Amino acid sequence: MSSLSQVLRPAHLAKFIGLWRRDGLYPAMARAVYFLRLFWRGEVASEVTAQAGGNAGNGVHRFPLAPIWQSLARDRAFHVSKPPAVLTRNRSVALIGDLNLPQCRKYRVEQLDEIWQAAGVSYRFAHYEDVPRCREILQGATHLMLYRLGRSDLATMYLYEARRLKLPVLYDIDDPLFSVSAYESYSNAAILPAPMQAHFQAEAPLYLDAMNMADAVSLSTPGLVAHARQFTARPAFLRRNFADRATLATGADAMRAARRRAGVTLAVASGSAGHAADLDVILPPLRRFLEGSADRRLMVLGHLDRAVFPNSVQDRVEARPFTSYPAYLAHLARADCALLPLTDDTFNACKSGVRVIDAAAVGVASLVSDVGDAGSLIVDGQTGRVVDPTGWDDALAELAADPSALRERGRAARDALERRWGVGLSLPVVDPELIQWVTE
To answer: pTM (2 decimals)?
Structure first.
């Protein structure tokens, strides 16, 4: 492709015309000149860049957008005339965030596309280190979302660019990473090396800084909303994780392919050794359950420390490593019941029910601790059970007594997931005031 044809792509021309209509000819021409400069420098193609730091005295700018800002200022095109959300009824959200954790990316970034589609809002996202793409999606946005970012040179740069463009900023997070008090009470943190614990504690104020530089905050559970309100005066909206179309379709495929075994197979997801304290909540009842009959099995999805189980049940405890999400659901579909034990602490009180969503997607009922938001997805006694700390022996005995009832609960869990926890623009999935904050 020739250089001229790359510059005159239909998408580039459409963006220029859109800017002309929105901001006027002079700002649109200034942006076109800026684009051409980037093009001749070879900076237009999206690529992950590490230009987050450096020494300006050596010709390397601390903020990669600094040369662009300076050029726009010299051309008197630095400021936009009005906020894009005032100049057009169309809404476009650009999300910039930390996309490294697959579960977080799926539930907080990718599935958000369904929410915004339903609201008539266009949506694009980028990893915060992909500076060229972040810069690109900001130019056509009416609103910026920052996801799971602490204060850093890059986060500060995107916030500065959003203010230059007069974009309202929404901060989204799904764990209390901003809270020293939550970290200090977190039972699972005890297994981490002391330097790592100190690092997380030291990072907490940086997450709060980024949160408080936004105009509003969206959070994944009622517990996290309540906890965040102790740290910020910004409007705090609830946006729960939900069962998107891909989850429901992949779950249906896994259900059709699953071959369940005689007896009872329990499944527990353990993403890492760092969740050992959660498993400890049910270890004694779980050992007694497995020892009670030879047709009882435990499937651990993720990390497994076999040493915590007696030799008498070792052949009925199996581990399935995390690979892909479809493979994870395929394993989960072979279980009769999923377990979600959680220690009762502030960090876990902010946890969502994504593991219940995963289980229900494949027609599997769940037993969950009465901690965090998982219980909100359970119709107690119909799609699973919410279990208090002393009730695990009775709950496990009940499900072993009637495996056929377990399967009926699993079907009911899938039905309830489809009816109540699919994409929606109101509670229980999302606070409608959040949708209004963007669309009005």
So the answer is: 0.85
